[in-house]
C-alpha cells in the first residue's frame, strides 16, 4: 500500500498542473468567447454598431457587383441585389464601443484590482482553497451569462467572472513554483499560462459553430452554459482534491541573503529590472489582446467568404502549444548555465522573430495570413511562461504572490484597456491599419524593451561546489576559514581524563 502511495505521489505535481491549467483554460474561454459570439449576442441583445453585411453564403466577394460594406444606410444596403434577390442585410455586426467596453474595460478593471488583492491574500492564506472558491465563482458567472436578457446584465456578469478568474494566475503561479524545481519551472509556467491561448483558441470553434446548431433553441447561450458547467466541475476538483504545498525559497531568494525578508513589495516593484519587465510585458500584452479581441471579427469582415474558424483553432491550439513547450524547454535548458539572464534573452529573441510574421497575418490574403500567423504564434507564445518564471525567481518568497498580482494589475490595465483605442483609430485610418499599430508595432516595441531588460539582469556566477571529503568523525568543513583565528593555548593540551572516559563509553 505504501509503495502504491509513493508511486501515486510522484504523479501528484503533474495532476495539480493539469487541474489548475484546465481551470485556467476554461476561465480564458469565458473571457475570450465574447469576441467570437459578439455578433450573435448583439443581434439578440441589441448593442453595438449596425452595418451592411453579406447574408448569403452562396456568393464570394468576387461575385458581388457591390461589396456590402460599401453601403452606409439601410436603404442602400437592401437595394443591393443579384437577380432581384438581396444579398446583404442591415444588422448588428458585433463591433462598436459597446463591444469594446464589454470585451475590455468591464472585464479588465475588476480583473486587475481583485488580482492584486488575491496576490496579497495568497501570501497569507491557503492558496488552494482560495483558488477552488474563485473557480466556482467564475463558473457560476459563466452559466448565468447564458440567461441574460439585457446588455447591462452581461457587463455585470463579466465583472463577476473577472473577479473569480483574477485568482487563477497569482495563486496557481505560487502553487506551481513550490511544487516544481528550477530545471522544470519555465516549462511548467509555459504549460499553465498556455491556458490563455488554449481558452482563446477553443473559443473559435465553440463560438462559431455551436450557436448555428441552435441546440434546445438556445443559440449562443449554449456556449456559456456548457463552459460554465465544465468549469464548475474543475472548481470542485480544485477545492477537494488538491492541498496546499509547502512554500519554497527559489531563484535569487534561495541564495544566502540574510536581508531577503526585509525586502518589501515596494522595494521589489521599484527595481529597474522589474519596472522594465512590467512595461515591456504590458506593451506585448496589448498587442496580443488587440489581436485576440479583433481577430475573428477582422477575418469575417475582410474575408467573409472564407470560413477560418478551424484554421484559427488549429493555429492557436496546435502551433501555439508547440511554441509554449519549446520556449519552456529552451529556457530551462540554458538557465542552469547562464542564469536568469538567459531566460530574458530567449524572451526577447522569440518576440523579435514573431514580429514580421505578425505583420503577415494581417497583411496577407487568407492562406498567407494563416501560414504567417502559425509562425508568429510559434515564437510569440513562448513569452508568458518564461516571463513569469523570471518573475518568481527574482522576487522574495514572502512577497511573491503579491508581486505577481501587482504585475498583472499593471500589465492588464495597460494591455487590456489600450485595445479600446482600436475603435477610434480604425475609423480614422482603417480597421486593418489600426491592427498594424496596436498589434504588429506593439510586438516590435515590446521585443526591443525585453532586449534592454537583459542588461539589467545579473549574469550567472556559479560558485564552485565544496569538495566532498570523507570523515569518520564530525565534519567541520563549513569552518573553512578557521585557520585565520589562532586557537587558545588550552585547546592544544591533551585531556587524558576525557579520552579515558570516551574509551569506556
From TrEMBL:
Keyword vocabulary terms for this entry: Membrane, Transmembrane, Transmembrane helix, Transport
Subcellular localization(s) per the UniProt record: Membrane
Transmembrane region(s): 12-34, 99-121, 128-148, 186-210, 222-243, 308-330, 342-363, 369-392, 434-456
Protein origin, superkingdom: Eukaryota
Predominant location category: membrane
Occurrences of domain Major facilitator superfamily (MFS) profile (ranges): 16-461
GO MF, one annotated term: transmembrane transporter activity
InterPro entries from the UniProt entry: MFS (IPR011701), MFS_dom (IPR020846), MFS_spinster-like (IPR044770), MFS_trans_sf (IPR036259)
Recorded topology in the membrane: Multi-pass membrane protein
GO cellular component: membrane
Pfam families registered for this protein in UniProt: MFS_1 (PF07690)
Keyword Membrane tagged: yes
Entry's family note: Belongs to the major facilitator superfamily. Spinster (TC 2.A.1.49) family.
Stated name of the protein: Major facilitator superfamily (MFS) profile domain-containing protein
Biological source species: Ceutorhynchus assimilis (cabbage seed weevil)
Amino acid at each position: 500500500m505504501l509503495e502504491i502511495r509513493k508511486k501515486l505521489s510522484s504523479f501528484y505535481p503533474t495532476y495539480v498542473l493539469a487541474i489548475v491549467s484546465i481551470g485556467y483554460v476554461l476561465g480564458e474561454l469565458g473571457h475570450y468567447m465574447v469576441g467570437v459570439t459578439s455578433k450573435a449576442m448583439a443581434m439578440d441583445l441589441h448593442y453595438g454598431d449596425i452595418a451592411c453585411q453579406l447574408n448569403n453564403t452562396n456568393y464570394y466577394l468576387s461575385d458581388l457587383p457591390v461589396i456590402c460594406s460599401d453601403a452606409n444606410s439601410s436603404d442602400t444596403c437592401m437595394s443591393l441585389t443579384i437577380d432581384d434577390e438581396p444579398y446583404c442585410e442591415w444588422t448588428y455586426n458585433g463591433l462598436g464601443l459597446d463591444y469594446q467596453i464589454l470585451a475590455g474595460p468591464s472585464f479588465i478593471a475588476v480583473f486587475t484590482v481583485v488580482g492584486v488583492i488575491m496576490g496579497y491574500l495568497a501570501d497569507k492564506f491557503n492558496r488552494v482553497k482560495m483558488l477552488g472558491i474563485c473557480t466556482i465563482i467564475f463558473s457560476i458567472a459563466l452559466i448565468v451569462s447564458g440567461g441574460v436578457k439585457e446588455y447591462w446584465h452581461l457587463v455585470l456578469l463579466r465583472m463577476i467572472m473577472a473577479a473569480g478568474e483574477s485568482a487563477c494566475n497569482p495563486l496557481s503561479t505560487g502553487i506551481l513554483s513550490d511544487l516544481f524545481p528550477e530545471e522544470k519551472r519555465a516549462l511548467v509556467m509555459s504549460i499553465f499560462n498556455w491556458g490563455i491561448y488554449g481558452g482563446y483558441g477553443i473559443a473559435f470553434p465553440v463560438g462559431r459553430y455551436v450557436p448555428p446548431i441552435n441546440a434546445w433553441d438556445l443559440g449562443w447561450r449554449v456556449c456559456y452554459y456548457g463552459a460554465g458547467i465544465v468549469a464548475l466541475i474543475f472548481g470542485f476538483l480544485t477545492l477537494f482534491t488538491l492541498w496546499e504545498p509547502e512554500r519554497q525559497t527559489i531563484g535569487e531568494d534561495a541564495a544566502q541573503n540574510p536581508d531577503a525578508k526585509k525586502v518589501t513589495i515596494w522595494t521589489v516593484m521599484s527595481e529597474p529590472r522589474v519596472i522594465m519587465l512590467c512595461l515591456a510585458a504590458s506593451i506585448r500584452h496589448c498587442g496580443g489582446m488587440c489581436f485576440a479581441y479583433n481577430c475573428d471579427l477582422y477575418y469575417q469582415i475582410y474575408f467573409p467568404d472564407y470560413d477560418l474558424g478551424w484554421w484559427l483553432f488549429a493555429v492557436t491550439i496546435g502551433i501555439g502549444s508547440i511554441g509554449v513547450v519549446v520556449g519552456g524547454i529552451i529556457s530551462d535548458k540554458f538557465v542552469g548555465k547562464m542564469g536568469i539572464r538567459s531566460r530574458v534573452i530567449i524572451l526577447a529573441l522569440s518576440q523579435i522573430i514573431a514580429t514580421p510574421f505578425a505583420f503577415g497575418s494581417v497583411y496577407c490574403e487568407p492562406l498567407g495570413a494563416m501560414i504567417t500567423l502559425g509562425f508568429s504564434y510559434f515564437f510569440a507564445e513562448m513569452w508568458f511562461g518564461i516571463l513569469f518564471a523570471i518573475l518568481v525567481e527574482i522576487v522574495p518568497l514572502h512577497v511573491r504572490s503579491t508581486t505577481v498580482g501587482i504585475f498583472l494589475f499593471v500589465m492588464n490595465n495597460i494591455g487590456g484597456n489600450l485595445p479600446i483605442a482600436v475603435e477610434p483609430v480604425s475609423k480614422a485610418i482603417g480597421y486593418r491599419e489600426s491592427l498594424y499599430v496596436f498589434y504588429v508595432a506593439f510586438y516590435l516595441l515590446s521585443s526591443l524593451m525585453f532586449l534592454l531588460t537583459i542588461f539589467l539582469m545579473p549574469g550567472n556566477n556559479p560558485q564552485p561546489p565544496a569538495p566532498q571529503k570523507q570523515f569518520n568523525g564530525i565534519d567541520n568543513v563549513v569552518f573553512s576559514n578557521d585557520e585565520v583565528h589562532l586557537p587558545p593555548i588550552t585547546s592544544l593540551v591533551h585531556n587524558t581524563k576525557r579520552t579515558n572516559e570516551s574509551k569506556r563509553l
